[in-house]
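== Sequence, structure tokens ==
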Amino acid sequence: MRLFLLPISTRRNLIYCQRINQQLSSKQTYLDAITTRASTQWVKWEKYEKGWQKKVTDYGNLLFQRIPFEEWGLKSIPPITARRKVEELGETEPINVVFPSSIVAQSDVLDRLRRIGTERQAFHRQRMIWSIAFMPISMPFALIPVIPNIPFFYLVFRAWSHWRALSGSKHVEFLLEKNLIRASSSAVLDICYAIGETDAFITKSRNDLKALGTPSDDSKSANVDIAEEMLLSKSDGKLISDITEIPQLEAEIERAVHQVEHSMSANLKMQQEQQESDLVTRGQKHQK
């Protein structure tokens, strides 16, 4: 397998695993078979023009977009098992983590991977337990005729999703502990990021953020935290997926960019509201 470390902004990174040897193995695990069958059924439901199947997939896709992109990235990494540990310890070549050297210093790659592999473990473990705990409560919905027990299946999916993300993070942690990862800079990714960092793109990104309501007073804007900058746009997802020949990366990058942009916009708006509130408070105190 090969790992990709893709900075979305100056503060947040996407990790993605390309399972190179997956096509060479004709034997599927039981869990992989279930996952494949569920994905096939979901795609079939999406093609319905109407009916409860169509509504389920419409609402379901909206929920999927709300799942953090970090979770999707960790889920792309295969779960760590005893057999996989033995196989990876016996490999003569380390696992490459591909990154853009124009954005990330090589000395910083392993630290970023370590944060990705450890910072969300407690969160995924807790949410997995919660999802399992609420499954019995959703059982009465099975009494509704015709329609499947959607709440139950959603909890099953979330429990599985958190387990996969937790397993992926533990896999990253194992590789780092055993020094089985090698940082490999990519000139191709450097080109992709260079295209994304044109003056027009940077200007547009800043203008979009300022459009939410830039303070007219210089003293206001001086206090706004603008340290975080976007490094990729949604259109870069297709560019990177085409150049790397990994179609799945397009959706992963688009999702990550959307979530980071939304988070940055919300944070900026909250900071500006806080500044306005502080100004009003100071004005009232001055009047007294």
